[in-house]
Structure to design on (658 residues):
């Protein structure tokens, strides 16, 4: 996208602060006030900014796109204790946000990527009647195992250096990120093509050459220096602890979501991933997605899309394709709704 | 009573003692504070005769079920998690539900967060109170009724336990169970429960045997488990933000005694009879106020309460 055009369109995105569930939340929004509302949820270590192409694309198609900085990120408040980063807190924020921005709409469309996908799954479990359809990027549903806590489970399967295990100790990985230089780490995370499972060895976790699979050291076309600057400046301001607290609250979250053991997702879902995504390429995931497990847990799973030559940040790597997939799915659901009312 | 089976079920990380009897559609009975499965002794026998499988657990923190030490293990999510685990382990998809006192609060929340697991609810004594987004519950009680309000007095770990320990547990049980004073219970620290006048003679519906049963269990276990539910009220409030504004979408019948403290909390009668409760519980089908009946209605008037419950569940 030519820089001038991009800048102009980015200026068309509105930013404001909303009081929700005891915190102040920053949201980016664009699109006709009465258009169908699409709530876009980013992941780790990300921001509303991940959705810049979708916000512009969807709004031009008549949707009202709303993308918050989630609790712990960017210009949204970051409570101190990791115990305030359970999915109950997150969904509490989002329900309050919808109360504030959704107006008369009874249902909204939902898009989630990475941790935003996980929160999306919980929003679908807790308040299914609010969600017309859910587009899940990268992270499929993971039903609660009543016998095994998540961190212990990951450790058993992938070892101590699995990134989720390495993220647990408060302050530790923050130190390592600081040593490896946040800008370099962010660049590695966004543009890397290392297949899963993501292991961070204690010695030199982010490596001298963080991209063993990449042939050159130039940024890819879809991720500019400007983009990297934006992320670096935001994370320099807030640090990474807010985002890391989601991982540190995983076991507590597991304890608190006992009531949903065995529960299925009833909302219509479309799942999209890139074929080089480290989640998709983590052992067990492909089998779950394509082998029937996913469909059994999500009976209304309508489509599974694997986008070729795309990594984890598929919404940034292949923005037009992803926007088209989103519109396609939501349009189908909208049409179904309209037909029902005849 | 000998026909009632007692089993221990492993659920949600605890061992749960369950009393059960009968075969047929399952009814799950949830007791309150300071109570036990035993509260439902009459209903267990009657419903077995009526062709149901009646199940009454000791909830987490009570009787022969486990009592995790920290108040933070007693949020509404923990208790509902225990019950979903219980239903899963019994292979019950959808259950008939009956709640009383704290068990009623648990029942409201089981219906709120897993309506797919409940066929119908008969709830007693405690109405559904929608979450106030600006005020935590304990803070609200303190503002309304003062620091001596029993819920406020129950907050500090160990404090009220010390007061209770200075009393004969049988007298304490008697006082809790037979009180007919409808005003909000405020117990100044200087007086304590121990300083209250001796309760009158036992009513006909509560025998010495009954009181001994309760006293034995609470002497064994202590009151901390049950008190922890009150200590987790504010935390539960924080964690139930996702259901702000949500209604309870299960068919409901509500029963309360007109001498029950809860019925006499200012505003409650209007809330129940003038549409407030129905707004939050749109499938509220019947409300019954039992004349001359106090808080422990299922023990005071067991046949009447059984009839009310049966009359409702029969419809489904």
């Amino acid at each position: 996208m030519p820089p001038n055009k991009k800048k102009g369109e980015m200026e068309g995105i509105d930013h404001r602060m909303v009081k929700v569930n005891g915190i102040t939340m920053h949201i980016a929004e664009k699109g006709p006030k009465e258009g169908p509302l699409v709530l876009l949820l980013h992941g780790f270590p990300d921001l509303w900014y991940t959705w810049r192409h979708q916000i512009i694309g969807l709004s031009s198609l008549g949707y009202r796109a709303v993308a918050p900085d989630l609790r712990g990120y960017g210009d949204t408040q970051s409570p101190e204790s990791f115990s305030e980063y359970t999915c109950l807190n997150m969904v509490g924020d989002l329900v309050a946000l919808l109360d504030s921005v959704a107006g008369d709409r009874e249902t909204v469309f939902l898009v989630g990527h990475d941790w935003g996908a996980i929160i999306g799954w919980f929003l679908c479990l807790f308040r299914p009647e609010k969600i017309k359809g859910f587009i899940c990027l990268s992270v499929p549903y993971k039903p609660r195992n009543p016998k095994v806590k998540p961190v212990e489970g990951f450790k058993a399967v992938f070892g101590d250096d699995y990134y989720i295990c390495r993220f647990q100790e408060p302050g530790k990985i923050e130190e390592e990120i600081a040593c490896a230089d946040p800008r370099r780490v962010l660049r590695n995370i966004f543009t890397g093509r290392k297949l899963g499972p993501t292991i961070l060895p204690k010695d030199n976790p982010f490596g001298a050459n963080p991209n063993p699979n990449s042939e050159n050291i130039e940024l890819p076309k879809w991720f500019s220096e400007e983009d990297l600057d934006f992320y670096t400046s935001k994370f320099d301001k807030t640090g990474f602890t807010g985002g890391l607290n989601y991982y540190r609250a995983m076991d507590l979250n597991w304890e608190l979501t006992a009531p949903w053991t065995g529960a299925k997702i009833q909302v219509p879902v479309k799942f999209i991933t890139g074929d080089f995504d480290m989640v998709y390429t983590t052992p067990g995931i492909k089998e779950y997605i394509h082998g029937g497990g996913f469909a059994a847990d999500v009976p209304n799973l309508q489509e599974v899309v694997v986008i070729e030559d795309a990594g984890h940040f598929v919404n940034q790597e292949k923005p037009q394709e992803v926007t088209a997939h989103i519109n396609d799915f939501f349009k189908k659901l909208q049409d179904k709704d309209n037909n029902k009312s005849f | 009573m000998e026909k009632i089976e007692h089993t221990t079920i492993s659920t949600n990380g605890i061992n749960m003692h369950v009393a059960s009897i009968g075969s047929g559609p399952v009814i799950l009975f949830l007791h309150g504070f300071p109570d036990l499965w035993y509260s439902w002794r009459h209903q267990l026998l009657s419903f077995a005769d009526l062709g149901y499988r009646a199940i009454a657990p000791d909830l987490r923190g009570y009787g022969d079920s486990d009592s995790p030490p920290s108040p933070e293990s007693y949020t509404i999510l923990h208790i509902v998690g225990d019950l979903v685990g219980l239903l899963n382990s019994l292979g019950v998809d959808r259950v008939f539900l009956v709640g009383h006192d704290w068990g009623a609060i648990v029942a409201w929340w089981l219906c709120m967060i897993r309506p797919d697991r409940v066929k119908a609810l008969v709830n007693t004594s405690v109405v559904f109170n929608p979450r106030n987004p600006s005020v935590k519950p304990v803070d609200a009680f303190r503002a309304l009724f003062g620091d001596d309000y029993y819920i406020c007095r129950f907050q500090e770990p160990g404090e009220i336990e010390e007061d209770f320990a200075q009393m004969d547990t049988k007298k304490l049980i008697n006082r809790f169970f037979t009180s007919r004073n409808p005003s909000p219970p405020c117990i100044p620290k200087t007086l304590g429960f121990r300083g209250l006048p001796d309760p009158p003679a036992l009513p006909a519906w509560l025998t010495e045997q009954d009181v001994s049963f309760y006293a034995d269990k609470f002497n064994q276990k202590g009151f901390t488990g049950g008190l922890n539910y009150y200590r987790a009220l504010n935390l539960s409030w924080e964690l139930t933000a996702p259901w702000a504004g949500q209604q309870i979408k299960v068919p409901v019948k509500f029963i309360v005694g007109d001498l029950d403290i809860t019925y006499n909390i200012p505003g409650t009668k209007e809330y129940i009879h003038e549409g407030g409760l129905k707004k939050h519980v749109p499938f509220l089908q019947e409300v019954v106020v039992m004349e001359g009946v106090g808080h422990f209605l299922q023990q005071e008037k067991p046949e009447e309460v059984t009839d009310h419950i049966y009359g409702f569940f029969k419809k489904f």
Observations:
- The mean pLDDT of chain B is 96.
